[in-house]
Amino acid sequence: MSKNTFIKLLSDEVSRIDKTQTSKRHERVIDGFTNHPSPRAIMKGRGYILFNSNDYLGLRHHPRLKQAEHDASERFGAGPGAVRFISGSLKVHQDLERALARFHGREAAMLFSSAFAANLAVLFSFLKGQSKDSLVADNTVVVSDALNHRSIIDGIRLANLDAEHKRIFNHLDMKALDAVLASCVGKYERAVVVTDGVFSMLGEMQNLHAMRSVIDAYDDSFPHGVWLIVDDCHGVAACGATGRGTEELTGGRADILIGTLGKGFGADGGYVVADAVIIDYLRESSATYIYSNPVSPATAAAGLAGVQVVDSDQGQALLAQSQSNIACFKEEAASRSIPFVADSNHPIQPVLIGDPQIARTVTQGLFEAGIMVTSINYPVVPRGKDEIRVQISATHTHEDITSFLSILTRLIA
User: Fold this and answer.
1) What average pLDDT does the structure give for the chain?
2) Contact 78, 86 (CB under 8 A)
3) Residue 235, Cα to own-chain centre: how many angstroms?
4) What pLDDT score does 160 carry?
5) CB burial class (10 A; 0-12, 13-18, 19+) of residue 283?
6) Are 321 and 275 within one domain?
7) 69, 157, 163, 199: which one has the fewest Cβ atoms less than 10 Å from its Cβ?
8) How many other CB atoms are found less than 10 A from the CB of residue 163?
9) For residue range 92-138, what is the model confidence (pLDDT) as tens digits?
10) Nearest Cα to 221, choosing from 180, 194, 175, 184?
11) For range 43-53, the mean pLDDT
12) pLDDT for 137
């Protein structure tokens, strides 16, 4: 059959990926978790310490989130029933949106099934934007940091802009951003600058205050202004004294901020906060919102509880403990001469290995010792920058950290 020819092509591509040892489909299956203060993942009866989780504050195991999840299932059922414009919004979804808007000091918020879906929707909808007469894209230029997340890259691709309407500036380089914006003056009605707040491979942070200064200097040079969109999924509920992420730490403010409930907040789903008119427009134009179910009511309730915990004295204590654990890790690692890829003060601490096979061997050695980390290799990172991405949680003990580093030191010696 002719379909077999195509099936052969698919099989060959899977084989090619397997030969490069970059396959993603062979996930480890976790059977459950222990009741340790830093819960161990149980696999085939053995407990493993997780140093590869985005659960930066340990909230996914918090009793308040689990109770909220249970209560919402009892009240609303297991699933949302349908998309919101067909079946109606559940109160728990609206309560969560209002809480997120308050948390970020914005007029409004909207939920998505994931932050990836939020980025796709925001970039597609906003890049086509509004001109004086119609919804068009040919008056807009998008300017993107060179190391932005895949969801940002795909969101820009989805907008189907011509190459002349897309610009990339050197990673974290404000002089480069300034030069790009200067070259666009007089050519476009609107400029959209998009960046990660925290870059997930290296734990580096964009200086939003410096970026805002550059953007504001050019705002009057474009008839529709220069807009800043920030994906701060790894920043919110992970850093800043009150968990407001990159905005709090750098003093800059996004026009549109995209976040997730699936990392520091301990639940799942993506969200956007902005001025009310922007959120109203996105509700009318975002396909991944209009035509896709929201997160389950139980997940929304857990997310709401997560926001409430972070925005409390207990949340600030967890954020302070997170910083203490990061400092412990960095000091202990430095004393053992463990090399870092980047100087990060974020829970993401990338350990430089430099060789893909060694990185995989070390990762396997750690797993055999009861520790889970993730090896990040080319093409996700540049050649020679292969790393083990260590992720520190507020629930890790200093004993967890020093034990991990002792084993790591032996394996990379």
Assistant:
1) 94
2) no
3) 8
4) 85
5) middle
6) no
7) 163
8) 6
9) 999 999 999 999 999 999 999 999 999 999 999 988 754 444 445 56
10) 184
11) 96
12) 55
Active-site hit among 62, 93, 128, 263: 263
The mean pLDDT of 292-299, rounded to a whole number, is 96
**From 234, 346, 385, 396, active-site residue:** 234
Contact in structure between 346 and 326 (CB atoms under 8 Å) = yes
Tally the domains of the chain.
2
Any domain includes 128: yes
For 385-406, the pLDDT digits (tens) are 889 999 999 999 999 999 999 9
Phi then psi dihedrals of residue 195, to 5 deg = -155, 155
Q: 3-state class of 339 per DSSP?
A: coil
104 is catalytic: no
The token duo for 2 is 């002719």
Between CA 228 and CA 280 the distance in angstroms is: 18
Domain extent for 306: 63-310
- Is 73 one of the catalytic residues? no
- pTM passes above 0.85: yes
Whether residues 34 and 149 share a domain: the answer is: no
What mean pLDDT do residues 211-223 have? 97
Residue where a domain stops, chosen among 280, 310, 340 = 310
Structure letter (DSSP) for residue 167: E
Asked if 226 and 197 sit in the same domain, the reply is yes
Encoding tokens for residue 192? 């959209």
Cα→Cα distances 161→45, 49, 178, 226, 340, Å: 51, 45, 22, 17, 37
State yes or no: is 263 an active-site residue.
Answer: yes
For residue 32, what are its two tokens? 């459950």
Task: Report residue 254 as tokens.
Answer: 């996004």
Q: How far apart are CA 413 and CA 405, in angstroms?
A: 12
Q: Which of 156, 149, 161 is nearest to 115 (CA)?
A: 149
6 part of a folded domain:
no
125 plus 273 within the same structural domain: yes
Cβ atoms of residues 78 and 293 within 8 Å: no
Active-site option among 53, 125, 151, 200: 200
Does residue 325 sit within a domain?
A: yes
